[in-house]
Specification:
The chain is of the alpha/beta class. Helix content is about 40%, strand content about 20%. It has 26 helices and 23 strands. The chain has a seven-stranded parallel β-sheet with strand order 11-12-10-13-14-9-15, with helices on both faces. The two termini are about 15 Å apart. The protein binds adenosine-5'-diphosphate and magnesium ion. The site of adenosine-5'-diphosphate has 16 residues, from helix 12.
Amino acid sequence: MARRQEASRGSMPLKELLISKESKAMASFGVRDLDTMMRFAPRRYVVPAPLRSLREIRQGEEVSAIVEVTSVHDRAMRSRYGFLLEVSVTDGTESLPLTFFLTKQHQVDWHRGRLPVGALILVRGTVGYDDFREALQLTHPAYEPVEDTDEGRAWAQRPRPVYPLKQNIAQGTMRSATEKGLEFAGSLSRPVPEEVIARRGLPPLEEAVRLVHVPLTTEDTRRGMAHLRFEEAFVLQSVFAQRRAQDERTPAPVLAAEGPLQGLFDERLPFDLTAGQREIGDELAARIAHGHPTSALLQGDVGSGKTVVALRAMLRAVDSGHQAALLAPTEVLAEQHHRTLTTLLGELARAGQLDAHPEATRVRLLTGSQRTSHRRETLLDVTSGQAGIVVGTHALLTENVEFASLGLVVIDEQHRFGVDHRRRLRAKGPSGQSPHVIVMTATPIPRTAALATVGDLDVLTLRESPGRRAGVTSFVVHEKLPAWEQRMWQRAAEEIAAGRQVFVVCARIDEDEADAPAPPLLDEDGTEQPPALEPARGVHQSALRLAERPELAGARIGILHGRLSGEEKQQVMKQMVDGEIDLLVSTTVIEVGVDVPNASVMIVLDAERFGVSQLHQLRGRVGRAEHPGIAFFDTSAMVGQEHSQHLQRIADAADGFELAELDLRRRGAGDLVGEEQSGLQRTLKHLDVLRDARAIEQAREDAFAVVESDPELTAHPALARAIEDRLRDADPDVERS
Ligand code: ADP
Ligand code: MG
């Protein structure tokens, strides 16, 4: 609490600066102090119609003109209640009547006071036609005093800011509030050092806020916003720089041993590592040997071989006398990872068994559905250090599982976790040390998006995929067009006849239960498209319907979903792997990592309900071995509808990088990453991680330099305050360490 007060002390409260109507309008957006208000940018600007001579104007046109008032008359209207005010104006070429229909005498007086004969005004409005007089006129135009000079003309042409509004708030209230604030711009807090602002060629803050709120040209708005964007990026990057600096002060186990398991494992591998796998392996090895916690994001498309890279790092931890944990988002995946690791390691994983290699370690699986006796035994291995590698779900971190000496944590598919793992992990290492963390993700983030979202992680990218994969071709299928549906199931049947297997994924388990609405889509302008679609098909009903389809007669159909017990799930997966099921209808439990090399068809029903990265993950389940894969995105949307076009873009996008951009455009960067960073991301006011790539990179360079020279920011109090505000906005409930 004390910190909170300190943070807001710097900035002038709006209540003391504005009239109550204005400060209330601002408060409805959570804007309560001068600093925040001056950074509350217009949503857009309207550029007035070009100045015209009255001789040129036409009916129906938007016009602006500089004119002189030549006469003013008002009279009570005969036909209806109220007054008619007629103002005649001229620009020297033509004259034009301005007409106002008013209900109150004081309104008449008000206009008369502002429109004395001889006054020079700027009028703006739509040209109308007076049938009675057979002449052009302006009804209820906007007007303001103006000077007929170059400056006056420039002023008349200035873009008008349009602020976000809520009910009952007038645009004029927002404008007058910010214009008042501008008078105090000299007292604004300046988180970015002036030297940095100057070097980057940005206008100083005081000028920038004027350019944003009362610009003279569109170029002004751009220059002013450039400052605000840079400032935002700079504060954000300073957060990352400080976290990095803090990592550099935190001790972590030194994972520097060169063998023996690492060498033995490399010899065992049935394939050669790709150049990328070697390179990233070396980089990781160097980082975890360094005595301070590494936080790395290992990204690479589905099947790019991340697991092997991570396993080699885990073996380095074991070789160094510590343990490694591998965390998966679901039990099914944890089980599969456990199988994969034990298979890859073979005799190296069989410590304590007769056929073990003398240097072997133990790989243990720990899940909630294990029987108590088994679980106790496993826990004992974890606590005693017998298990060099422990595989589980992220419950491993929340439960009080005691590791003998946890040196490295590998997290698979971070977008399921939330990245506050770092904080939670801090003390999990031996004697209060912080273990190293590697997060693996198959949804690669474009570089600058990564800088703006996970800028405190080292991003390592596997670009090539090892050769043997046959790849996947994706198609969009429209449920409403029976011929397409039929062709799809026929194709599935052909693959089954050829000995392959088929996945069918549904958005829910049961159709009798409430259906989650499909997520809305954003069109090109960022406008939401309403999800006008059929309810989602369920696993149970789909399996029954498929059993009836003539194309699939004789196919062995299985089902899998999260409500089956751990044992049942395992059994179904085993049947699938063993080829005893031809077609598996399931929910997304199979989304990530499930490996059935013989599967060649992935059919996603109601595909529009799935996220971009989910669809990419799903299609990555097929075409993994030598058989080419086919993915069908089946939708109840019609051809040409937004949902269908969106799916088509995913079908056409070849690699994860292209998709990551699609995903970003659709959802904003927040969802790409875990909760902690997405908190920071969600509160981004001005930055667009794609558009503002350059500003983000420059701000990063500058912020890291500032934090390096002044880690506690004692010489940069405004920046320190801005960081606190930023963290509080992002995550009000969490106390920062
Ligand atoms: P990811 O986790 O990135 O999706 P995996 O690590 O699961 O990818 O690898 C996908 C498949 O490719 C696995 O069967 C793995 O054994 C295999 N693989 C990994 N690296 C190589 C390589 N260098 N050459 C051939 N196959 C590889
Ligand atoms: Mg994987």
